[in-house]
Design goal:
The chain is of the alpha+beta class. The chain is built from three helices and seven strands; from the N terminus they run E-H-E-E-E-H-E-H-E-E.
Length: 157
């Protein structure tokens, strides 16, 4: 498994396909609903396996000079529980630090709130309900200038 930044049209197609399959298709949302107006300026990371198949994705975009937002975190259901979500999260946190961001926010779906809490995110409260049924919670984490102790640098080469 390798963390990369999608570069080519084919890589971005595969990246968006996983986002759609995991985050939109189960709720009968159309293709294209897995994208928004921040794609061109955002930081994207994905994990590919040795066959170049995308197994996890995530995105970071700046809200202001100090704060970034994590969105569209998704792991292929067949690869959950293997630490891929944590790897994407750490890579995006590294990217946020490199961009000089001091804080990260996200809106987590109810089933993954505990995952983000284990990664140091503070639960701020309920934020919104997507598609009339997916409850989200706002979470935040202050970033230090250095990665946490014992964390290897996951920046893309």
């Amino acid at each position: 498994m390798q963390i990369i930044t999608p570069q080519t049209p084919a890589q971005f197609d595969a990246y968006y396909e996983l986002r759609w399959q995991v985050l939109r298709a189960p709720w009968q949302q159309p293709r294209g609903s897995e994208r928004d107006e921040h794609e061109a300026s955002a930081t994207h990371r994905m994990i590919i396996d040795n066959t170049l198949q995308v197994r996890a994705v995530g995105r970071l975009h700046s809200l202001d000079a100090d704060t970034g937002q994590l969105r569209y975190m998704a792991v292929d259901p067949d690869y959950r529980g293997q630490g891929l979500g944590k790897q994407i999260l750490l890579a995006l946190e590294d990217a946020a630090r490199a961009q000089g961001l001091q804080n990260l926010v996200l809106h987590a779906r109810e089933p993954v709130v505990a995952f983000y809490r284990r990664q140091g995110y503070e639960l701020l409260g309920r934020s919104h309900t997507l598609f009339g049924e997916i409850i989200h919670y706002k979470m935040q984490k202050p970033l230090s200038n250095a990665p946490p102790p014992g964390h290897e640098d996951t920046k893309n080469p």
